[in-house]
Every structure is written in structure tokens, then in C-alpha cells.
């Protein structure tokens, strides 16, 4: 018997689910509604496209709608879900090109709408060269503007992952860059010791940092182009502004459905990605995940989770006994010549969740000190005070922070103690580490 599977959202979780389900269940009739012009693209590559490391935006696009024409998947781009009626098992959709509205019935509904940029009141329509970044189209507009000879001064509002990745993008393009943030707590997944290293790197590259400033207004010139950013401490001239102060789950269209969400709108799901309403599922940046250290549902919008959840959800919809094990927020980011990685809990999360913890912070080296090219590698551990089980880790350095975090992620998932990490069987050769890897050195110091 043919089942109608409707998926709202056609990027990471949505298309991962559709593609896998198509292979798992040939009888399913799968319809994907995507409000943008592109599906199945690498959104995390957009800063590198803007910085011209990636020249063609189509290099980010993995699949296009026509790639599915001979399958049981129908992809409708430029189609936005307006509302969901669980009682009728129906979705109201609008074709954004024709403005035609229609209803689509479902047997199973997957919500994979992702997260969207926060747009505070000072972000007004009609100001040229004022942007947020979410889609390929956003990236195209920002890059086109940035490559103009008239754009010399760039102001980035917000200092999270996206804002700081864009620092590198515009630095590569030779722009004068200012970063405005309303607090000094930049890159929230890490603690102050790691932030200090990041701030030093930004200053060394002549990035102007304006912290503890509240944006009040964005002004425009007589041509309607952005002119300046006005804060409670002054005015900053700008030829281009990107607002990247965070994201929220794109779930406003679900209001009134009775679907449970967190305060920020993230859809609450169980380990099978089921919502509290029968036949409705959610995956990706619009939904919660189970945090394996904190042991509760949280919102961590990462592409890694979206892709894994989408694939697993397809197997669940096909009748297989699968579940998503949750996560611990493992992440890595490159900013100029510095790599920062983190996993598990930081001190703020540990405090907010009343964990009894201790910390250690060390300066190690990426490889044997006597081998050419050895660079400082900073490591911070958060661990349980009594059991010495590792709860969180953060690394920063020019070399070596990008892959060691994966070993530490597994250590946290397996509830390993500091002593177990210290005597783990890590490979050694001078070009890549010392005889005691910095991860082991940090564990020994903590012990």
C-alpha cells in the first residue's frame, strides 16, 4: 500500500531522509517542499564561497530536483509550508512563484525546516548591502556585494560561529573588518581561556573588535545603501553589514498545532524523532537532540546531527528498529590561522546544570618540540570532581586541534576517566605529537 510521506525542508535532514527512504521503501510516495531555490547543499561551505576559496556556488550543491525524476521522490522548490493541521493530516503550502495555495495530505509528516537567522528590530528591509546568511542565495548576494571595489569596510554584528567564520572570508578579500558584539562572551561553546587566544589572533590580524556594544540603528545613504552601524557607544562606518547574532528554529508556522517545543521554538522529539503528535516527526536544526552528558533535550543546530538524524529517520519510517543516540555538541571551526574545537559541556553549562566539576587548562604542542613546525596547542578539560570522568574538552591552536577533538568526543561518550585517557593507546611519531600526546598531558595534569 502506497504511503504519502511529506517532508518540509529540503536541505540537510530533509533530503538525507528522502534519499534514504527512497531506497528503503520503494512503495512510499515522498514529497519534499523546499522554500528556497536549492536543495541538498553544503550550507557550512557558504563562508568559504563568500571568501572566494570556493569560486562557484554550484560546487556547494550536492543534488538538484531533477536528479530525483526517476525515483519515488517529488521535490517542489520555492514552496513554503504555511501551516499544519494534525487532525486532518494535512499541510497548507504556497507556491512562492505563482502564489497559489493548496493542501497536501500526508500519512507521515517530517518537519526539517532548519534554523533561521535572528533578525532584531534594527534589521530593516530596503537597506542595500545589509545581509543575514542562511541560504545559497544569501551567499551569492553577499559575495557579489563584497567583490565590489566600493566595499572596503565590513561590519559583522555577532561573534558566534557564522560571524567569526565570515571574518576569515572578508579578510581573504582584503576588507577592513569590524566585529560588534553586545558582550565579550564571543563563541559561546568555549570558555574564557580559549576566547582569550581567539581574541589575540583576531587582534594580530588587525580585526577591529567592539565588544559590549548594543546596536541601536543601521543608517543608509541617499542611494539606500548601508552607511553606518549606530551603537550605544558610537557610530561605525560600513559599506557592507552582515548580522549574525544567532539562529532560531524555523518553526513559527507550527503555532497552534499543539506540537511541543522548547522556549526557542525547537521541536521536542524522542529518540525516534517522534513529536508528541502521532505521525509527525522532526529532525535537524528545527528540533531538539538528547544531550548525553546533561541527559536532557537541548537545541544544538549542527549539520552533523541533521544529516545523521535524516538518515536514521528514513530507516524508522521504513519500519526498522532504529533510534538516534543523541550528541554532545562536538564542533570545530577555523578562524584565520587558528582552529578551535569543543565537545561536551563548557563551564557555563556545567554551572547551569549543577554539575560538580573541576577544570584544567594546559599549553601543549602540536607535535614533538624538536620537530620543525611545532605549534602551541591549548587544551581545557571539564571533568567530574569525584569520578574524574571527562565531561567536556576545548582545544585551540594552529595545528592539531581539528582531529584530537574526535578522540575526546568518544572519550566523553564512553564516560572515560582522566586516568583512562592518560593511558590510552594513542599513536606517536614526532611530526604529529610528543611521546605523551597533549591530550594525555592534560589528563595527567588534571590527575
What's the helical proportion of residues? 10-25%
- Global morphology: globular
In terms of structural class, how would the helical and strand content be classed? alpha/beta
The count of DSSP E runs of length 2 or more, i.e. the number of strands, is 25
Which consecutive residue ranges, at least 5 long each, have pLDDT under 50?
none
Please write out the topology.
Elements: E1 3-8, H1 12-24, E2 28-34, H2 46-50, E3 73-77, E4 79-85, E5 90-95, E6 101-105, E7 108-111, E8 115-117, E9 130-131, H3 136-146, E10 153-157, H4 161-172, E11 176-181, H5 192-204, E12 208-211, E13 215-220, E14 226-231, E15 234-237, E16 240-243, E17 247-249, E18 280-282, E19 289-291, E20 296-298, H6 303-317, E21 331-335, E22 338-344, H7 347-352, E23 357-365, E24 376-384, E25 390-397, H8 401-413, H9 418-422, H10 438-446
Helix pairs in contact: 1-6
Protein described:
The protein is an alpha/beta fold. Helix content is 23%, strand content 29%. The chain is built from 10 helices and 25 strands. Helix 4 links the parallel strand 10 and strand 11. Helix 1 packs parallel to helix 6. The longest helix is centred in the C-terminal third of the chain and has 15 residues. The model has no long low-confidence stretch (mean pLDDT 96).
Structure described in brief:
This protein has 447 residues and is of the alpha/beta class. It is built from 10 helices and 25 strands.
What labels describe this entry?
alpha/beta; 23% helix; five-stranded parallel β-sheet; 447 residues
